[in-house]
Amino acid sequence: MVFTPRREWCRATAIALGVPLGFASCVVLFLAGAIQAGHIGNIQVVSLIGFALLAFYYSLPFFLTTYEITDSELILRVGMHPIRIPLADIFALEASTGQLGMPAWSSDALKIRYRRNRVAGYSVVISPLEKATFLAELTRRAPALQSTANLSSKCCSGRPCPD
């Protein structure tokens, strides 16, 4: 089952879109400088292409993020980088306000704690749009997951979710 992320304006969203915007503004500044100098040389062209590609690459996670629960794994597709977490390794879910560098574009997020190579210190923060359905599906398929009854009815701040 594939889930889309909840996208709202928060700190992670501002940074996720601010970095590509910074690269795009560098492209505009380099182009303006080259036009003002009267010629566009090879270095300017390479710089323009490089910054344009970086802006495109860093904006992909915001637009191409999905969460998929299969029979054996949770697959987080973030831009061009899939993160595969075996369902048997997931042991806890917590409410979270989102963290930088995580594929959660909302302040109402879930922190998934899991083991990798028998080490239990790994986590990822996500924000599915259909939070209650995601929790029900993950609870049904992940055998080692602790109870998630308190997560589906409340947001991170303790107030009811605006679903």
Explain this structure to me?
The protein has two domains: 3-62; 86-152, no CATH class. It is 39% helix and 26% strand. It has helices spanning 11-37, 42-63, 131-141, 149-152; strands spanning 2-3, 65-69, 73-78, 81-86, 90-96, 109-116, 119-126. A hairpin with a 3-residue loop joins β2 and β3 (73-78). α1 packs antiparallel against α2 (42-63). The longest helix has 27 residues, at 11-37. Mean pLDDT is 78; it is low at 152-163.
Biggest sheet: strand arrangement: 1-2-3-4
What does the largest sheet look like? 4 strands, antiparallel
* Total of domains: 2
Mean pLDDT across every amino acid position: 78
Q: Counting H and I runs of at least 4 residues, what is the number of helices?
A: 4
- Helix/strand order: EHHEEEEEEHH
Spans of at least 5 consecutive residues with low confidence: 152-163
User: Which structural class fits the helix and strand makeup?
Assistant: alpha+beta
Computed CA radius of gyration, to the nearest angstrom:
20 Å
Task: Tell me how many strands there are.
Answer: 7
- Helical content (DSSP H or I, runs of 4+): 25-40%
Shape: elongated
Q: Compute the separation of the termini in Å.
A: 19 Å
What is the strand content? Answer: 25-35%
For this structure, the quaternary state is: single chain
